Amino acid sequence: MQSEKKDIGTCVQVISSNISAATFLASVSLALCSLIGAWISNTNFFESKLVYGDTRSTTLSIKYICLLICFLLAFSCFVQSARHFVHANYLISTPSTSIPPKSVEVAVIRGGDFWSVGLRALYFAVNLLLWFFGPIPMFVCSIFKVLFLHYLDSNTMPLIEHEFDGTQVVRKVEQRVSEMATAIHTPSHQN
Fold first, then answer.
1. Which whole-number Å values give the CA distances from 157 to 23, 103, 150, 152, 154, in the listed order?
2. Distances in Å between the alpha carbon of 92 and those of 86, 100, 106, 172?
3. Which residue among 74, 101, 154, 165 has its CA within the 20 to 30 Å range from the CA of 58?
4. Which of 155, 84, 77, 149 is nearest to 117 (CA)?
5. Following DSSP, what letter does each residue of 33-50 receive, concatenated?
6. For the whole model, what pTM was predicted?
7. Gap between the Cα atoms of 37 and 41, Å rounded
């Protein structure tokens, strides 16, 4: 891809920030998986009077496994998101002009999709975490989560269709060529 260095720098910086955020959330998801392992070894906490609902060991094991699967899904999605963002970063910073912009766009979109699925897995993990305290907290959290996600996902304003306008690029190139031509043809003042 060829473009101005300022534009490439901005693109690389934004994608690098996304890579950092994806690796951070992947690390958090993995740390939470190890926290679940520590909870499994100490099951006395959820056998107290604080918990409403079924506290049998088989039910707790199912809850642990569901929460662990959710965090592992989030971890793998964030790792895939970072992978696609790194690929897009590589494609953008490659000095070759033969790389089509569509391949960069596909890499960024896939990275964003994995990022979204990873965040949804973390959102769902909150519901599963409240399931340990009983079905009522889980149900209330589920209702609020559905309303929250509906608010986030509903598009009240139409998106702006941004298409590449080649005439602006042609004008910039013509302007630079004419500036260079006038600089070459103007006589230099030498003493």
1. 31, 28, 14, 12, 9
2. 10, 10, 12, 21
3. 74
4. 77
5. HHHHHHHHH-TTGGGSTT
6. 0.69
7. 7
pLDDT in tens, 13-44: 788 888 888 889 888 888 888 887 777 777 66
Residues 158, 164, 169, CA angle at the centre, nearest 5°? 145
d(CA 24, CA 155): 28
- In single-letter form, the type of residue at position 61 comes to S
Whole-angstrom distance, CA of residue 36 vs CA of residue 125 = 12
82-124 tens-digit pLDDT: 999 898 888 887 776 777 878 888 888 999 899 989 999 999 9
CB 119 within 8 A of CB 145: no
Query: Is the model's pLDDT at 76 over the cut of 90?
Result: yes
